[in-house]
């Protein structure tokens, strides 16, 4: 079994933190770009991709700033979205933090790049 690596990716996003947060923290928002379908029961999110399901529990949330999901079937494995806004320029960035196997880090980064491109397209930025 390989070691977990924490991957941190940052993307400039041209929209308000409130609009972006809705796409990162709600079932309907996540279903627009992250998964084919998302179902929620309490804090348990079921993500559906091409017929297969994976469950994550929303364990942290700070409105308009961050949300973290811990995978139910993988110990110490999570993904997190953080929204930052530069005080001087007002530029908004999305920071994605993901835990993946070290030997899959490059593939994981590529997957996030593709997913965030879809998110930006939906947001119109």
UniProtKB/TrEMBL annotation:
Gene3D superfamilies: 3.30.530.20. Residues 1-124 form the START-like domain. This is START-like domain-containing protein. It comes from Sunxiuqinia dokdonensis.
